[in-house]
Amino acid sequence: MALEGRVRAMSLEADDLDFGAYIAKLGEHGGIVEERISGAEFRSPSVQLRILPTGELEVLSTHDQLLGGPSGQSYVGCRFPADLAYAGLITAEAEKVGARLAREGVVGRFAIDFVVVRNGRGDWDPYAIEINLRKGGTTHPYLTLEFLTDGRYDPASATFRAPNGGMKFLVATDHLESDLLKGLTHEDLFDVIVREDLHYDYARQSGVVFHMMSALTELGRVGLTGVGDTPGEAEEVYRRAEAILLDDARDALEPCPLPPLASAVKAAA
Q: Checking DSSP bridges between strand 159-161 and strand 207-211, what pairing results, if any?
């Protein structure tokens, strides 16, 4: 009875799925019971790798995932690179998995998701939880940064450096989403970007790059990648763009008074 009570109390990620439908699917297809890892401080980073046709393993990047949804388990964005406090730890574990996949004949990009938690000594303990044999949500923002700066990620130091030696950081999302944004057209978005100086500046190599703009009016959703020279700067340009877009979208939905009719103006005169 206690187990049933906990299952019934679960927050389901899908809005259109109720408990009865969930149990029916579980009975039809079966399921996997997993241990939930928890701690006083909990984060969900990932490592992206690639296996070449020669069997050589490359570490491409590390990210801290931004999670949302009813139970905080849905990917909505990322910060790059992952925190230096544990980037090396998860990279070492990911390389072990990657070496095994290479022996099994896997070729191409893949990612390994981790959970890291603080232990009693204040250090981070890494737990590998999932292998994604595909390009993931972190691939696009990383490639965007790579193309914009011509920089490279160094797995040994867990840092990304541009050709001038400066470090670069990003914060990105595919899900800046609000019903307010449905009030903006693509032209409105471009106007906001120019007016508020949100665009990426090639001279400074910082700013915001937008994507998924076709979903703006219909779904109220847009993607963006904020790039900066420090984690704080990347976060600041990202948050600034988010706040400005939502404020402009809110203003766009405010009713505007109609100008007075010519006849009414003459009568008043």
A: unpaired
